[in-house]
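Morning. Coffee machine broken again, so started the prediction first thing and wrote up yesterday's gels while waiting. Chain of 174 residues, entered below exactly as on the submission form.
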Amino acid sequence: MKKQAALKIALAAVFAALVAAATLTFVIPIPATNGYFNLGETIIYIAALLFGPFVGAIAGAGASLADLLLGYGIFAPGTLIIKGFEGAIVGFLFLKLQKHIKNTTVCASIAIIVGGLEMVLGYFIYELIVPGYPLAQALAEVPINIVQMVVGLIIAVPVMHAIHRIFPQLKSYL
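Came back before lunch.
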């Protein structure tokens, strides 16, 4: 039991670092919203789908480090919570849906859409409250975050299947 806990902590740390690296590597600033498009979402989804809600949550929280390093410090506290919940939701829902739906692609897609919508709504609310953006500016971020979620889904689900083909023993990890 202690070995499994240590493994989950190690995986969570590695995936948090991978999320930060993926986010830092591919950044498209969005001047109109003071935000940026990135591929960190993809790694959050992969972590959550492969290793569950705990690893997904910590991986998601790793995105806040990228905010700090990129100069978006005002978003770091929100990112810590929003992306952490996103990873947890995706991992949790994926596990629960697999008990009722045999098609893992459908389970993964539903889990990502629900988790991704939490991210979209979370940033919308955060931007209205913390930096106090006008409604129009907060709304302008919504389509960008939806695209980020969809790109993450399009990449993460096939990667999950590829990893399961190469390492079938990971299917029993969850």
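Residues 86 and 102 are 23 Å apart (CA to CA). Going to sketch it on the whiteboard this afternoon.
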